Amino acid sequence: MTKLDAVNIVLTRTGRAPVSALDTSAASEAAHAEQLIDEVELRIQAEGWPYNTRSDVELEAADDGQIDLPTGCITIDAYGQDAWRHVSQNGGHLYDHDNNTSTFTGTIRVQYTLRLGWGCIPYPVRDLIAARAAVTYNERYGRDPQRVAGLMLEDSRARTRAEQHAGRTGNINVLQTPEAARVRGGDYLSARRPIWNGGFNP
Prior knowledge:
Blueprint: H1 3-13, H2 29-45, E1 53-60, E2 73-78, E3 87-90, E4 93-96, E5 107-114, H3 123-140, H4 145-169, H5 178-183, E6 193-194, E7 200-201
Antiparallel strand pairs: 1-5, 2-5, 3-4, 6-7
């Protein structure tokens, strides 16, 4: 599915005519559809999927003490033996909330998600992005009540297909889920949500 295919899915599902080319910088219906696709794509990739999540990666401080974030980083947090550390993204660098500084010494193990280009997103996730963008397009640009149920159903089906794909390509450890932690007597609220590859996403 190309970006143009996704744009035409949004347009046709919301009762508009398909187009033969992208119209990125204009103010047309196709341009609005493409903008929504980009917006939804970022939100969905930020969820963290097997293809765009990197776990147990060791980052090292540069000579100035700062740790540069990986290119395309959307979310990042400490991981594994360093999971206790409170860090976050601050511009293009990692920030240490425990010590209120962007200066580090040595290394830190992290987990992060990346915003990858359209062509690097697996088809089931691209399908989900297009379905979700169609729902949003219908809400923002001339809501058609008669289409809402159908759009929501297709969005739900696309989500199921994307998660099934993630389940096949990921490596979920059911013993590391918040539910399993609760059964073991752990604090559900402090349990971190498992990502598809078996690591944890706070």
